[in-house]
Amino acid sequence: MQIRKQIIGLIKNKIAKSQPDFSENKFLHIKKANEKAIAIKSFCFDITMIFLGIISAGFGLKGFLMPSHFIDGGTMGL
Fold first, then answer.
1. What is the pTM of this model?
2. What is the rounded CA–CA span in Å between residue 76 and residue 65?
């Protein structure tokens, strides 16, 4: 009976030592998820700013330059 308990104890110790430490893997997983979330937020912000710039340029051309028959120079004037 005593030998059986020792064998079970040895098996449990061997299993506990062979299992990887998930705390470091979990940290890396959370870090990657956080970096991905930041990249997505940055991308959405960039797209929003580009869209607002397009709307602003369109409003400027339609609202101020076209009614006064004034042609802007540069690319818009071509």
1. 0.52
2. 11
DSSP readout, 5-64? HHHHHHHHHHHHHHS--HHHHHHHHHHHHHHHHHHHHHHHHHHHHHHHHHHHHHHHIIII
pLDDT for position 73: 59
Output the pLDDT for position 50.
94
71 touches 77 (CB < 8 A): yes
Secondary structure class of 68 (helix, strand, coil): coil
Token couple for 17: 């030592």
Residues of the chain with pLDDT under 50: 78
Cα 45 to Cα 41, 50, 51, 55: the distances in Å are 6, 9, 10, 15
Structure tokens at 12: 């449990």
What pLDDT does residue 43 have? 93
How many residues in total does the chain contain? 78
